[in-house]
Design a protein that fits this description.
- The structure is a single chain.
- By secondary structure, the chain is of the alpha+beta class.
- The chain contains 4 helices and 4 strands; from the N terminus they run H-E-H-E-H-E-E-H.
- The protein has helices at residues 2-10, 26-38, 56-66, 94-97; strands spanning 16-21, 46-51, 74-79, 82-88.
Amino acid sequence: MEEWENAIAASHNHPIVVFKHSTRCSVSRMALKMLERRWDLPESTDAYFLDLLEHRDISSSIESKMGVQHQSPQMLCIRDGKSVYHANHGSIDPVEVKPYL
């Protein structure tokens, strides 16, 4: 939870990207493969990988603080402590987040 709070604080200096992933979900595995294949974001991008089975509490905090309903899988771009972009399931594509960075 402390790392999540630090990530939110960092988003006030530069946007961050969060990928929420369930290791038991085939849709989440497919989204992860898409993310890996199409990842072309600047190296300076702070990216966070959230294992939902291990850290459901952080996902709940994301839902509460960002006002974005929990989904799995899910990708968010957070700037200035607010979600400026999110995508779920098959619509996850890192190319789509570029304009928000």
